Amino acid sequence: MSTANLIKMANQIAQYFASEPDQQQAVLDVRNHLKMYWTPGMRKELLAWQTAHQGADLHPLAQAAVSGAGWEA
């Protein structure tokens, strides 16, 4: 899968959880979704891209979910 598609999907997931009033819970929800439904390869590719590009195109919740503690690609 292309990195562009992964970014698009991660942003859609983050947008879905953006209505959560508790920001920390929203980040955890995005992280948990990615861990439950994405393959390890997808997570590694997104993490590598995020590291190389400082998450420039990622929704802030997706950035926090991928870069925060507890993220194991």
TrEMBL record:
Give the species: Pseudomonas brassicacearum
A Pfam family annotated for this chain is FdsD
Q: What is this protein called?
A: Formate dehydrogenase
